[in-house]
Design goal:
Blueprint: H1 15-18, E1 27-39, E2 45-50, E3 58-62, E4 81-90, E5 98-109, H2 125-130, H3 139-161, E6 165-166, E7 172-173, E8 185-186, E9 196-197, E10 200-201, E11 212-214, H4 219-229, E12 231-239, E13 252-261, H5 265-286, H6 288-298, H7 302-311, E14 315-318, H8 319-327, H9 345-355, E15 360-366, E16 382-390, E17 394-402, H10 406-415, H11 424-431, E18 437-443, H12 444-452
Parallel strand pairs: 3-5, 6-12, 14-15
Antiparallel strand pairs: 1-2, 1-4, 2-3, 4-5, 7-11, 8-11, 9-10, 12-13, 13-18, 15-16, 16-17, 17-18
Helix pairs in contact: 3-5, 3-6, 5-7
The chain binds one RNA strand through strand 1, strand 2, helix 2, strand 13 and strand 17.
Length: 472
RNA sequence: UCCUCUGUAGCUCAGUUGGGAGAGCAGGCGGCUGUUAACCGCCGGGUCGUAGGUUCGAGUCCUACCGGAGGAGCCA
């Protein structure tokens, strides 16, 4: 969107560029939305414009000699859209390097302050959720959007540099055997007139000839590609129909799932750590203004804590050691933490927030509490699983080395009373040229929540989908 | 799904043992010779979430439902 790239009319530049002192003296044009207007005692106005290009606003000086000053400019209010042309000059006031002395201001659309919900003052995040069509115009969601974008870019850059191929796994899946929780059914059957067969719905009449659902994970399909091309990753939407009402759950969220052939659990854990550190480094390097806002207004201390994470190696603990630490912690827990039980939120919180005070990689979980595809360890009672936990948010990564031994996989399916036929293609990957391989899933919004310090995951995605809520 | 809290003006909230609704901000008008979230004055604005019930009388008490928040479970 700059004037130099040849895409748009030469004088049009971004507010981010216009705020830079190197443009002083140039005649330029900016296009965006008014954040606020202040009238000077001298009979002219300061109009602050934001076009999304950066956190800060461009201050525009609108003198009363402009032909439409009284009619338009003097009444400009937050949310109005304008095109302003003028000369960039050094700012006479503090707080910004430059300002635009307007030669012309064209008002494209006014936002009537009587009706426009966003005020100059602070709104609660809960209220802004009701205005998801307007909240990107606020400082918080502008910053959030740029942070999300930067993280997305880093995801691709990191995996591309590490030799991973970006693949697209299906959104619609025709098997209900993924076992990762409640799924949303996809159907074209008439719900008021379902075809029945012996009293049950006849899904052979459905669009795909069988039951189909929205995906809860692209992992199994990613394994197909990993065992052909070596290293792959997905970055796509994921759907969970669980009725969970918390600040950490969404019914629709974005997940990144790398899968790598010839990676064992150690390689997998190292990959996860390098990946997270890369995300943090890029974020802190290139989203300074936005992160400074989160630091100042959302969670003081967040930047320092992220820096610390970047500099130190992650702590690693086996599940068994974690249980030992909980046992000898002297801490009072509401839930028990015996070996073989899944760790409760309070346990994870103790481990990350009090014991290690930073990210923690837990691995080698009891096989009884983990899915069939995780690789069985030699001790006969644990699997090569690993989770990455971080303070405040909890689990952001769950992964494992996958069971590559055909006989072991078959007996695990049998143990868990799953039908081998349902997994015929998954099993064939082990029949034909099987290799050790590993992967993990990282919840994108959880990372956003962690790095911004936002308390509720519903504010970490543009349009949150939660039980009872799919507005916009 | 469970537990707890909550729903009063555009926004944030106050409203005392049930007696007829208030403040700040925002907005409108006016004033103020460069300002950078709340300079001064005046003005307008509310079926007190919805539906029942108790009572002479309900924002206030009771019941149900709906929305929101925090925590739990499930998970990423």
């Amino acid at each position: 969107m700059s004037g130099q790239d040849g895409i748009v009319d030469a004088p049009w530049i971004s507010a981010a560029q216009a705020r830079n002192a190197e443009h002083i003296g140039r005649e330029i044009e900016v296009r965006g939305w008014v954040r606020t207007r202040r009238d000077s005692k001298g009979g002219f106005s300061f109009v602050e414009l934001n076009d999304g290009s950066c956190f800060g606003n461009l201050q525009i000086i609108a003198e009363s000699s402009l032909p439409n000053y009284q009619a338009d400019i003097h009444n400009l209010s937050a949310g109005s859209s304008i095109v302003a042309r003028g000369i960039v000059q050094a700012s006479q006031g503090g707080g910004q390097a430059t300002e635009l002395l307007a030669k012309q201001i064209r008002v494209l659309g006014i936002a009537d302050p009587q009706d426009y919900p966003l005020q100059k003052k602070r709104h609660t995040l809960e209220k802004l959720r009701e205005w998801a069509h307007l909240r990107p115009r606020t400082n918080t969601f502008g910053a959030l959007t740029r942070v999300r974008n930067r993280l997305s870019q880093s995801v691709h850059q990191f995996f591309q540099e590490q030799g991973f191929y970006y693949i697209n796994t299906p959104i619609i899946t025709a098997s209900d055997c993924e076992g990762a929780g409640q799924m949303f059914r996809v159907t074209t059957l008439p719900l008021d007139h379902l075809p029945l067969e012996k009293g049950k719905v006849d899904f052979s009449k459905d669009f795909f000839g069988k039951s189909s659902y929205l995906t809860v994970s692209g992992q199994l399909e990613a394994e197909i590609y990993a065992t052909a091309l070596g290293r792959v990753y997905t970055f796509g939407p994921t759907f969970r129909a669980e009725n969970s009402n918390t600040s950490r759950h969404l019914a629709e969220f974005w997940m990144i799932e790398p899968e790598a052939a010839f990676f064992d659990l150690q390689d997998n854990m190292l990959l996860a750590e390098k990946f997270i550190k890369r995300l943090l480094r890029d974020l802190l390097d290139s989203c300074g203004e936005d992160m400074a806002f989160f630091e100042e207004r959302i969670q003081p201390g967040v930047i320092a804590s992220l820096r610390q994470v970047m500099e130190k190696p992650f702590e690693h603990l086996t599940y068994s050691d974690a249980i030992e630490i909980l046992n000898s912690s002297g801490e009072k827990f509401e839930y028990p933490h015996a070996w073989g039980c899944d760790l409760q939120a309070e346990h994870e919180r103790y481990l990350t927030e009090k014991h290690v005070r930073g990210p923690l990689v837990l691995y080698n979980y009891p096989k009884s509490i983990k899915p069939f595809y995780m690789r069985c360890n030699d001790d006969g009672r644990t699997v090569a699983a690993m989770d990455v936990l971080v303070p405040n948010v909890g689990e952001i990564i769950g992964g494992s080395q996958r069971e590559e031994r055909l006989d072991v996989l078959l007996s695990r399916l049998n143990e868990m009373q799953l039908q081998a036929e349902d997994y015929w293609w998954y099993i064939e990957l082990r029949k034909f040229g099987t290799v050790p391989h590993s992967g993990f899933g990282l919840g994108f919004e959880r990372v956003v929540q962690w790095v911004t310090g936002l308390g509720n995951i519903r504010d970490c995605i543009p349009f949150p989908r939660t039980p009872g809520s799919a507005e916009f």
